[in-house]
Amino acid sequence: GAVVSQHPSRVICKSGTSVKIECRSLDFQATTMFWYRQFPKQSLMLMATSNEGSKATYEQGVEKDKFLINHASLTLSTLTVTSAHPEDSSFYICSVAMRVQETQYFGPGTRLLVL
Amino acid sequence: TQLLEQSPQFLSIQEGENLTVYCNSSSVFSSLQWYRQEPGEGPVLLVTVVTGGEVKKLKRLTFQFGDARKDSSLHITAAQPGDTGLYLCAGRGNAGNMLTFGGGTRLMVKP
User: In the structure, what pLDDT confidence band is assigned to residue B1 with cuts at 50, 70 and 90?
Assistant: First the structure.
């Protein structure tokens, strides 16, 4: 399987600031990357799907202006939480795939705490 | 929208006991995956089942895909404390689109 890293692993920020989370595919050409959010003791909820070089597709209820996704290369996608608020505190997980319908390989996650 | 319901949501058992986790839907899936996730980490793929009625074994774990490809089960024999974690099923629709995750089953195995 693919090796996927996320940075940072944990971040604490003040309300109103923006936070950027990186997802890197270390040994895999990831045409498609996915961003999930997971609240405590809950399952994964897909936020958006991004294809390299094109705009991300957001799931219903996810604000694209708040969660900015950039997938500029086959090995890197970034998720920026703009003007973060305490309710954005969550565990953010990315996954990579060669194509949308193929096996996804998950990153270790980033825990965001907004004070 | 394809929904996957997992049961039970939480299970606490003693080491050595057997258990079964269920994943049910009214929708048909082209494939279904089981993941295990530990606190503070991403999910790790355990198995993918594709064919209706398929049974796959991974050491003490037995996975079954329903004949109609609407449900699946995970059976763990002689559970060990190392099996503790969040077990997630995820289905992929016939259109080959995104994964839909179940709500998860949190398993705790006490020594």
Answer: low
Q: Which among A42, A46, A108 has the least Cβ separation from residue B42?
A: A108
Distances (CA, A) of B64 to A34, B26, B58, B76: 27, 17, 11, 12
B61 phi and psi, to 5 degrees?
-105, 130
Instruction: Please tell me which of the candidates B43, B103, B106 has its beta carbon nearest to residue A106.
Output: B43
Contact B23, B32 (CB under 8 A): yes
Q: What's the Cα-to-Cα distance from A63 to each of A56, A93, A106, B6, B56, rounded to whole Å?
A: 12, 17, 23, 28, 40
Mutate which: B101, B106, B107, vs A, most A CBs within 10 A: B101
Nearest to A59 by CA among A45, A44, A69: A45
The helix/strand/coil state of B2 is coil
CA–chain centroid gap for B31, Å, is 12
pLDDT (tens digit per residue) in A43-87: 999 999 998 888 899 998 999 999 999 988 889 999 999 999 999
Q: Taking CB atoms and an 8 Å limit, are B44 and A103 in contact across chains?
A: no
Rounded to an integer, what distance in angstroms lies between the CA atom of residue B109 and that of residue B100? 27
For residue B41, list chain A residues with Cβ-Cβ distance below 8 A: 108-109
